Amino acid sequence: MDFGSDNMAGASDKVLAAITAANAGPADAYGGDALTARVREQLAALFEHEVAAFLVATGTAANALALAALTPPWGSVLAHEEAHVAFDECGAPEFFTGGAKIVAIPGEGGKLTPAAVAAALDSQPPRPPHTAVPAVLSLSQATEAGTAYTPAEVAALAAEARRRGMAVHMDGARFASALLRLGASPAEMTWKAGVDVISLGATKNGCLAAEAVVVFDPERAATLPLRIKRAGHLVSKSRFLAAQFAAWLDRDHWRDLAARANGAADRLAGELQARGIRLAFPLQANELFAVLPLARFEALRAAGIDLRRWPTRSLAPAACGAGEVVTRLITSFATSDDDINRLLAGIDRVG
Amino acid sequence: MDFGSDNMAGASDKVLAAITAANAGPADAYGGDALTARVREQLAALFEHEVAAFLVATGTAANALALAALTPPWGSVLAHEEAHVAFDECGAPEFFTGGAKIVAIPGEGGKLTPAAVAAALDSQPPRPPHTAVPAVLSLSQATEAGTAYTPAEVAALAAEARRRGMAVHMDGARFASALLRLGASPAEMTWKAGVDVISLGATKNGCLAAEAVVVFDPERAATLPLRIKRAGHLVSKSRFLAAQFAAWLDRDHWRDLAARANGAADRLAGELQARGIRLAFPLQANELFAVLPLARFEALRAAGIDLRRWPTRSLAPAACGAGEVVTRLITSFATSDDDINRLLAGIDRVG
Amino acid sequence: MDFGSDNMAGASDKVLAAITAANAGPADAYGGDALTARVREQLAALFEHEVAAFLVATGTAANALALAALTPPWGSVLAHEEAHVAFDECGAPEFFTGGAKIVAIPGEGGKLTPAAVAAALDSQPPRPPHTAVPAVLSLSQATEAGTAYTPAEVAALAAEARRRGMAVHMDGARFASALLRLGASPAEMTWKAGVDVISLGATKNGCLAAEAVVVFDPERAATLPLRIKRAGHLVSKSRFLAAQFAAWLDRDHWRDLAARANGAADRLAGELQARGIRLAFPLQANELFAVLPLARFEALRAAGIDLRRWPTRSLAPAACGAGEVVTRLITSFATSDDDINRLLAGIDRVG
Amino acid sequence: MDFGSDNMAGASDKVLAAITAANAGPADAYGGDALTARVREQLAALFEHEVAAFLVATGTAANALALAALTPPWGSVLAHEEAHVAFDECGAPEFFTGGAKIVAIPGEGGKLTPAAVAAALDSQPPRPPHTAVPAVLSLSQATEAGTAYTPAEVAALAAEARRRGMAVHMDGARFASALLRLGASPAEMTWKAGVDVISLGATKNGCLAAEAVVVFDPERAATLPLRIKRAGHLVSKSRFLAAQFAAWLDRDHWRDLAARANGAADRLAGELQARGIRLAFPLQANELFAVLPLARFEALRAAGIDLRRWPTRSLAPAACGAGEVVTRLITSFATSDDDINRLLAGIDRVG
């Protein structure tokens, strides 16, 4: 079973070919190469905005660097309690920021609301220097529940943050999948809605290891070259990182890849629902959270289908009853009809 | 009005006199003096246990150092969401620990329960290295709501922590007041109940600036001398810090001081209740949280009585109705009957 | 023997009395008290300049906070290799700055020169982001060799720093003693010569525990309140810290105290030289570095005189011959003629 | 001109092919893949020793992680003043270690000696907690001057370190080139000589971005998985990192690549010397430091040959006269005879 993570897929052929093509001849190191320059232009075009962009190998690095550019060590970063930056990065944001405080906020379906942000800050109002200074609101797009914020929702959250002097970060590890669902442009989903910095993920969507920290206000990017080197994230043979991005961005390849992942998710969701298996959250990217009676879940596992219980605090009260469990299924650009058919056949065998 | 904080009081005469007495002649610096050695013995006697003890000037330093001794940078510290270490120290725990994650847990009356701790960890189970490693449970005694844990409650919480491989810290900024209420011994309230390290506060209870990090297992203290120096908390003329503690511990002076603070709180609580003003939380130390109709609160303030609205998430649903507000009143060893009478007179004038 | 450190002395009577006087009645905490406000005014008057001033309990904290206000984590701090900030603070500057690089520069007599600073930077020119960004030049006044920079020397060093975009910090743990020797005003020795921030030490010169971070450009001080709280250096009952400083600054008490320490050093130096014991460095503050044949040094120690070998890299080649050792003797405001006589009698007995 | 850095070369065909081959089908992420397991076995075989091995994308990360595994925040790391860890990583070691102190030691030809290590520690003996605790000796193999330590030299340095309770790290960014020159086995050059951890560099020697932290005592590796995740260096699609290493280690491919780089360096050195250009340091890896009269250097540059002055403190007094400059030339596995011929033709044209 290959639905455990979109990190289990390899890279797209086009991305791989670009790496091979980039190998010819010498190239300046540490970002001085022509491909890196080209990617900067591509990103500016993609976002229809001047950008400072930095390429790194992991999403955790991209997120932690982005947050470090936006908060002092005594700042706080507000994020959904299930957000990667809050829970899944082993304290990388704390490490990169020099010890900022990550404030975990609950919210249904993995999403924050302006009201939840306001409540978090108003029920215990900050009193610096005794408390941390609210500095960043971080939004995951798509969320850890596979849901997505509309541009209007991002804008409302960003306005709430802005009103309180906070910057806005978007963790876009699955940005492409969310974007396609919403039919919004990259610009509408980011700076036009008030996002200051996005961690733009390409790894889960067809690259080997390629993420970009994209900063819309160059002033906010001033410390990043130093932070990146200091964190060991300045790759020497930078052309290979850039080559992935260049191919991924070229002629909307990223869109094609995300469309494949989303299409596979759609088909899988339909087939599951046809078999009486409902979803815990609306399908707004490439992640499905299937609700199953515990007995059926155990029977499927006993039959060799690699399903894992997915703990989530994000469930609406009615979403998952007593005696039911949630399991997460992720599709990727590489998910084939055969992959889905095999899973469904397994489910059908067990009944 | 002097009920805003127990930090507004000065020091007790005995403590002050001890400082003056300590001034005679030369003394070794950096903790090599005789008074510091004596305090270590006094603390061992107080707790009926071998201890490693370190004297510092602030409670924030004591807490942050204690936590840093108990968690690696990738550890998490579970604490009540209103705990000083979680909210009121501007990220000092994050700073001293090298970026550990503070997990803020809600709970009525400022208190954690084993069930709340279990829920926090089980609803999103840790998966190192992707997530932080649960490392410390930190309990405030008394809590930020002026309540106190019984030794049995501490023991149950510590057992839950221990079962998950976590150490237990107690923030004892108002330890003396809580202890007297409960009639427990220092040993019963700490190591006998499973506490590994206590930040023992003397400043709020009659000293100028004197807090102790008391470690019951000397092995856990091994890094503290280095952490303390590195944090600028190794005072050179250590005799003056030790002199405060020595006097405070001598012949139960700390008990006398806490009894005075608690007695003043008792009298004030009775008088308020006699005037129809109820308390939001049980009075279990020297802090009162008075519930007032907003109109009366505003009238009192208009009359020049320095009351401040106290935001608290710890309230039981019924504790504070719509149209009511909570204000915090703290007594100290220095609170006189006159102070209380003046406050009551003001209240009576306004009605 | 009491010449091991000026931290072995207690506090002056006037300073002690001020603490007792400050105890009457309630006072706002955390620097909101009237005494703290008064000290700020006194410091502005002392330095004849607008200042932002922050009172802390230790010199290590003052230095590390000052440096943290002046350098980002990727900056470098140039200091003499024997400077406290480079060698004697267990990495406090690294800790407070978030990991800045301390560049240790050699120099005779504990002193840096513009040429040495230039050589350190030019022999391996910085290439950010690959290398740290030179951010601060830190000067110890007096130095660890008991020497002092003249205002002209400070100005030349500060000009070299400024030319390279670096700020200038002065570690003034023994500022008063140096200042009196040089007959300069506090202003001439600091901001008029190009110093941005001084750690002004009062502890070694008659206080219990009182140091000030004095910042001449308030903009550079913006982060300090947060850094101070976060480092556990915001004392709650701040009046007692301020009381020490207020008394110390009042009517040039600090001058009287430093004059006593310097006078004792002068007398001791004269007596030693009369006994054929020469000094390794010019006496420019209150520290003497006596050069002794090893045999005589050992004989004195055998006779119970507590002399310690003082390792120093700062010696001019001719200052200490083979078979000779250096020992450090420090006087303080509390050093009496009797103290000196006892030491001399011991020396005379041994011969 | 392509002699500026071995980072300007691409990857070897075999390494590239391995990446493409690794792309087939799904694979577990985060190091759970089969290729990563295989590389661990290959490394154990290479070093003839049980190892814990961690693959990361940059040499700076490998070095900083290795040091962080070996020193507490209050430790010191002794390294040559020109070592990458001391000078060229923008404070990454300070960042990863939580602020350890890097002690920069001078030494001819980029090399440390036991006597220099001893002098650094004995001229200012550590006195914890006032000073940092000497924790690690870091050796660069090859050095920044293109020289190499013999196994006996490593052993003598490691013995000096061990005697003082310090661990030994080797920065092996150009380990392969040095090893081939010395005819030693990887085991002889590392753990047999007392090295605890090596940062084994493959990027400069034919990979895209692949470095390994190899730890010979698994206990010392215990914190690394957490440090790696926390620093954003746990790549999700780990198979692609492992594929590079697997190919590089397979059938001594690394040796072939290093032999090509060294052979090119040999030829270039011979040709330069034939033209009256001498080397500042012995050629013991793949870096040449050519000494040129300033006029000739300027003439060559004017003729379009991209030579850069190389500042170095490592020169023996006689190595570079007044009016002479040093320029660095690096060869790689990809350096062709044509590349060398073009450079020589340029030199010959200018004369």
How are the elements arranged and paired?
Four copies of one chain form a homotetramer.
Chain A: H1 13-22, H2 34-47, E1 52-56, H3 59-70, E2 75-80, H4 84-88, H5 92-97, E3 101-105, H6 114-122, E4 133-140, H7 151-163, E5 167-172, H8 175-182, H9 186-189, E6 197-201, E7 211-215, H10 224-230, H11 239-249, H12 253-274, E8 278-279, E9 287-293, H13 294-302, E10 324-330, H14 337-350
Parallel strand pairs in A: 2-3, 2-4, 4-5, 5-6
Antiparallel strand pairs in A: 1-7, 6-7, 8-9, 9-10
Helix pairs in contact in A: 1-11, 2-11, 8-12
Overview of this protein structure:
Four copies of one chain form a homotetramer. Chain A is α/β, with parallel strands linked by helices. Chain A contains 14 helices and ten strands. The first copy, chain A, has helices at residues 13-22, 34-47, 59-70, 84-88, 92-97, 114-122, 151-163, 175-182, 186-189, 224-230, 239-249, 253-274, 294-302, 337-350; strands spanning 52-56, 75-80, 101-105, 133-140, 167-172, 197-201, 211-215, 278-279, 287-293, 324-330. In chain A, the strands form two sheets. In chain A, strands 1-7-6-5-4-2-3 form a seven-stranded mixed β-sheet, with helices on both faces. In chain A, helix 7 (151-163) links the parallel strand 4 and strand 5. In chain A, helix 1 packs across helix 11 (239-249), helix 2 (34-47) runs parallel beside helix 11 and helix 8 (175-182) packs across helix 12. The longest helix of chain A has 22 residues, at 253-274. Chain A is globular. The mean pLDDT of chain A is 96. Chains in contact: A-B, A-C, A-D, B-C, B-D, C-D. Chains B and C meet through helix 1, helix 3, helix 5, helix 10 and helix 11 of B and helix 1, helix 3, helix 5, helix 10 and helix 11 of C.
